[in-house]
Give the backbone structure.
Amino acid sequence: MELKDKIEKHLLDVQKPSRYIGGEVGSVTKDKSKIDVRFAFCFPDTYDIGMSHLGMKILYSLTNERENYWCERCFAPSEDFEAIMRENDIPLYALESLAPIRDFDIIGFTLQYELSYANILNMLDLAGLPVFAADRGDELTNIVIAGGPCVCNPEPLADFFDIFVLGEGEEVNLELMDLYWEMKQQGATKTEFLRKACHIEGIYVPRFYSFVYKEDGTIDHLVVSDGAPEVIRKRIIKDFDSVYYPENFVVPFTEIVHDRVSVEVLRGCIRGCRFCQAGFIYRPFREKHTETICRETKALCENTGYDEVSLASLSTSDHSEIDPMLTELINYTAAERINLSLPSLRVDNFSESLLEKIKKVRKSGLTFAAEGGTQRLRDVINKNVSEEEIMNTCTIAFKGGYSAVKLYFMMGLPTETDEDIVGIADLANRIIDLFYSIEDRPKGRGVQISISCATFVPKPFTPFQFEPQDTREMIEHKQKLLLDSVKTKKIKVSYHDPNVSQLEVILAKGDRRLCKAIYTAWKKGCKFDSWEEYFHFDKWMEAFNECGIDTSFYANRRFEYDEILPWDHLDYLVSKEFFVRENKTAHKSVTTPNCRLRCSGCGVNKKVGRECFAESKSNV
Amino acid sequence: MLRVRATFKKTGRAKYISHLDLNRCMLRTFRRSGLPIWYTEGFNPHPYYAFALALSLGFESECEILDFNITDDNMSMEEIRDRLNAVMPEGMGIISVAVQEQKITAIAKAEYSFSLVADDADKLMEDINRLISGDEILIEKKTKKGIKTVDIKPDMEVISCEKGEGSVNIVMRLPAGTQTNYNPTLFVEALKNSGAQPFEAEKFVRRAILCEDDSIFK
């Protein structure tokens, strides 16, 4: 029986079957016999989540532009379908050809969040492949690679992968595939291929590196073999305005998380919030011209038929042409009855006429990522949101008919005291007072403040990479304090499970010794850890225990400035000296201005070989 | 304004598109086609279109009905058909487009074909004949008020029932439309409950949407 028939035999027994059979508008089908290299783009979570991922859309279309390469999609099946697959010997397959991914040349995963790591092992296993790279043989096939933000510290997954791709994939992916095809024709082995591949900038082959540890558990030194480079530098697209952007997306039948056209307007971030990994690993700041953004929006809307478009970036308001760009976009979307969504947009310094237009298209609520409860703490984390700004925007919003405000905070930030926690409740109270002090506030309903608290997770390649995470006891104390400080029903408090954040920090800051533990946890049944109903903290802790891993070594220990970090051999353009300097500045509660205002010397410009902003020096 | 009725097929992989998803899918198909479809004129204008009957997930169809309005009176039916077909998902396609003739309430029944696969098709054939020739075929139907026992026999028309290779292939007509809707799976359930040979039902296809006098709904 063909695999397709086998799949179809069971498809009506599972939830949302259209996720497992492909055939969506915009999906690319090719003649297998004319293909030289087959690439399975795997997202280690379900279809609904993975299909929302912009990076996959870009690399999918880009690869498929090449006639002799075929990129297909693959997702983790939900529990119901996984059971059927295992029971009926249906191996993990790609959605375009419905062929098993174990027949593919390159199997690429995107590492978007740490809690998806166990899913990767599960997917490899479902594919019928050994999960450890060392067990997959030396034939040049099934090269298992990974890219995405978490690759900036890939050590906890090093034993499972052949290659990690650092940085932006638009160029390096094709270079890697070109090399693969060249060497495949020559009859090379996997090792021979990897020895050559590691000299492509951005390609990290973990098997050529091994760590020697000190007695206290920290890294003594790194041993590099096979002539691989000492340091691996991430890739960036220098000319961002003319980088490839798809004119079409795969349009799913079933509803997905971000079910709309997404247009990337800028990469990198000028803000330098000290907790934010994305703010550093995607540097330098680059933007697309208004004309490019509008052209891409129009093409995607016409080709997909979506009636909603959203702008993707870390901070859209920092685009230098934000006013003309939004004006032009709104003119187009309004005429075509397309809904333009503008997530996390600061509206403080827009022109009156634009503000009017935005009001018409904007449906989302009022949200502030204040992150810290007091100005002192916001200075520590370099989150340049002042209380005055929050109050000003709230005033405008309340007058405009809003009566609900969402505030995001983090708990367990460096230098945080009880005062900062109480400060969260105080800030919310002052917003309530503000609401009732406004004459023309919305009548007939009260104000509602929602406080959402996440536990701070220190991440590699941030100034806070050295910081310990609060222990469970400390977080529980702070959560209780916050609840006790809130004395009105107008304020609602919710927070994340601190166990999840603890696992996150271990996996984020971990080293190669964790591979065994991830394997053990998966063997114990861990998967879909980002889904509350599947998260089994006890199983993870058992796994760490059995592998002799002291989790507090990674989670609750301060990493020294002069310590060799597990990710020190990876070069994300921002220098370690800068992170040390920023860490020290943070502990003095001093802020660092944004990159456009003044260059803070993170080192990116020197390595890229040009200034990030033409005007950055004259502004000092 | 043109009041248009399109007949479309939903076959192959498209049978896994649920009715809810089909709605969204059709909206995007209209947008891709660029056809001047009429929007409602309320507070929240949206393109107006309606499906005559819902189709069960997993069923194929050769006769689904979709009504919508086109604001350009001079557009030919052929152009509407071709522009939609150019942007339809795999497995779906417009068979014909015409001006709406009858009201939706004229729909009275639908014709379905399906196969019952069994190791012993002869025995199954006997079981089916026994059920069909009986006085009544009682099924339990979920209604808003709870589970109701209904006799589908008076409303069920067996058009053909033939033995194939390891299967029995059935064509039957069942009430459909705004009043009563019977799904052929109800008959399959009744057959299972009658103690018939073990079998598996597959290849459900809606073949026609009909009026009371058995004419094709237009």
